[in-house]
Specification:
The protein is mainly α. The chain contains six helices and two strands; from the N terminus they run H-E-H-E-H-H-H-H. It is extended, with a radius of gyration of 22 Å.
Amino acid sequence: MEQCEAHIRSHGYFEADDAQQQQQQQQQGGQTSTAAAAAEPQKRQSGCFRTNCKDALDRTNVVQTVFAERFLVERLRTLGLLGAGESLGHSPQLNEIFMHSWADNADALAMAYVGTPALKTDFTRSGKRTIRGAAMDGWHSAHRYFLGAHTHAAANAARRTQHALRV
């Protein structure tokens, strides 16, 4: 992460001030108006990060988890919700919400890409590997193998043929 720090800082982050919107809503008795002013951008983000491990969706998700936690902690500190030097671990409830949300995200992406839930989400959710989690990973890995070898084989062959025709 330290190697990426300068690059991370150069991108910044987007922040909008919705104080003007809130003030107009209060003046209208809390009612939202279609004529309400848009939130004013205070900061703009100039880039993003893309990570990819070419042979493992699950390892890509682990790296993304590190980036996501780092960005979330920084924003929470900026908003005054975490003190300097504090991490998500200082708030067990916040940490649990983050980890479960991230594991749910990993499952959704894995289902879209490979047809099974993500691997090692027992660790993502709890910080511990469990026997049940290892057994489920074995089941999901076998299922992925079957899908890749049989169900996805025709689609992969079609993609290879389509690619060969373009070359």
